Amino acid sequence: MGAGKRKKPILVPVDFSAHAAAALRKAAELAGCTGQRLLVLHVIHDPAEMPGYYGPVAKKKKLVRIEDLARDAFSDFLRKMRKDNPDLRPLHKCDELLVIGLPVTRILEVVERSGATMVVMGSQGRTGLDHLMLGSKAEQVVRLSPVPVLIVKAGQG
Fold first, then answer.
1. Which CATH code fits 10-156?
2. Where are the chain's structural domains?
3. What is the pLDDT of residues 29-66, one digit of tens each?
4. Is the separation of the CB atoms in 30 and 120 below 8 Å?
5. For the whole prediction, is pTM greater than 0.70?
């Protein structure tokens, strides 16, 4: 394969949860088998949707833009993942992408733009009233994605 012909990536949207960590580990294992690269994505969304989402990072700083908080949280998440998983080589040379918008919309846009062959993402697996009220981002991606989607829960990584 020539220098200009890179294999298409496996897209891994992350939200810094245990489920996202499990999905990233699983995606790195798959990438190790297929020789694909990982494209790790975090979508910065309206903080009103999930209050406290960037809270652990925000406590260290005052009056910082949400993008900067998200970038710090993203870096911290990947640093910890690499430290905790030294043998997962694809994780140590993954591409990173930070975008702003609605998570499902932006994930699908990145699938199209990057040419990703699949999406590996974590899900809390809510059921019942929580699921009906909130909907599932993972379920929406599964329904709308033009490529296969693997859903991973924290206990499955």
1. 3.40.50.620
2. 10-156
3. 999 999 999 999 999 976 555 545 555 455 555 555 78
4. yes
5. yes
